[in-house]
Amino acid sequence: MRLKIKNGRIIDPENNIDQTGNLFIEEGRIVGINKAPKGFKAEQEIDASDQIVCPGLVDLCARLREPGQEYKATIATETAAAIASGVTSICCPPDTIPVIDSPAVVELIFQHSSNSRLSRVFPLGALTFGLQGKTLAEMDALKTAGCVGVSNAYAPIDDAEVLRRALEYAVTCEITVHLYCEDSSLRNNGVVHEGPISTRLGLPPIPETAETVAVSRALLLVEQTGARVHFCRISTVRSIELLADAKLRGLDITADVGIAYLHLTELDIGTFNTDCFVLPPFRSQRDKEGLRAGLASGTISSICSDHQPHDADAKSAPFSMTEPGASTIEMLLPLTLQLVRDKTLTLQQAIAALTSAPARIAGINAGSLSIGSPADVCIFDPEASWTVERDSLLSAGKNTPFASWEMIGKVTQTILGGNIVYKN
Fold first, then answer.
1. CA 25, CA 176: separation in Å to the nearest integer?
2. Across-strand partners of 206?
3. Does domain 2-52+375-395+406-423 have CATH number 2.30.40.10?
């Protein structure tokens, strides 16, 4: 289909484009910006006046719960929520049931995502078999099967020698390691940030050193092995300082932050709000401001949803006994746009953190409007306001800490491979 998107403000950070104009799509590819190819005749036109046209968003971490936890959500439900939010590419962590530690599970995920025909799904393979932190997974086979990286998800690798060998193996496979850093002994089954709130509520605390000690150890091993490592869901200002110093020393590292951590702190737990039980925990106001500064400076290059849909029962027990995680993919774009209104980021920086930067980290052909690239496009109204209502969420998970928040910025249309897959 030949498609013309006209009169929109086209923003493509990858190619440093920010201008009002027209975008031309043919046979699932971008074929022109402002100037139509010779002989191009649109079969359909979209008027994007007063709207922003940008690459489809790339989410580095969203749990789709399939296979194994379909009672929480499915690939079909969560990709439907994703495309309504402008997200056209999703990386899913390996902590499914069974774990993504064999090509057969990778193939199963591709099959189910292909059936949904919505967002593109890119699995992360397991770093160790069963995520048990003992035996290295067959990274080369996982890469060949289509995994864009390897990760141990939330499961800690307590043995430093195993982590070292895993990084060395990843180097030989030329694959990125997505590393969530937490020292399990320092976390010690904690559930909230260590500070006045944990003391007042009487909840088991997680000190910031549970993250920073693990980040320090990982950086030393990256330096030794030369591995390409992406640090996932950084939550403390001290970690940002460690990463910034490592970048100055030339280590091949990147980092992301979950969108909720740029807006919420330990104070939002209030009186045991279980929707605010997440890992890593929401930290202090100082950490939140530090994360925003780290994003502005480029130490953190990407924002992800860290979307984790749960069923109602998972969040209905006492705080410490509930399951961690929040449903956030539908708020990813408006909450990022809020950072622009708060003057934390420019609009170019904000869109880059959702498109070109995560696509580069994942090593996928996405996140840009380059001529010849896949026509994955997000069109949104930056001034449209809406209120988060649990029952109106498309995700099967209604466990969001942003319920009743007013959002500004709404996706009007999402295009995947040249096809309109969502229209508001």
1. 32
2. 193
3. yes
Provide CB contacts within 8 A for 130, sequence distance 6+. 99, 101
* Rounded CA separation 143/101 (Å): 11
Strand, helix or coil at 168? helix
From start to end of 131-287, where are the E strands? 150-151, 177-180, 192-193, 205-206, 229-232, 253-258
**If you search the block for the tokens 């100037």, which residue do you land on?**
35
Bridge partners, 303 (sequence order): 257
Which DSSP state fits 62? B
Interval 354-396: pLDDT, tens = 999 999 999 999 999 999 999 999 999 999 999 999 999 999 9
Is 256 part of the annotated catalytic residue set? no
Catalytic residue among 59, 95, 256, 306: 306
- Contact status, residue 359 vs residue 404, Cβ threshold 8 Å: no
3-state secondary structure of 206: strand
Domain boundaries, the chain: 2-52+375-395+406-423, 56-362
**CA-wise closest residue to 373 among 423, 421, 416:** 416
Q: pLDDT tens, 180-213?
A: 999 999 999 999 999 999 999 999 999 999 999 9
> Angle CA(259)–CA(264)–CA(268) in degrees, nearest 5?
145
Residue given tokens 């950084």 in the structure block: 234
Q: Determine how β-strand 57-59 pairs with β-strand 17-26.
A: unpaired
For domain 56-362, the CATH superfamily is Metal-dependent hydrolases (3.20.20.140)
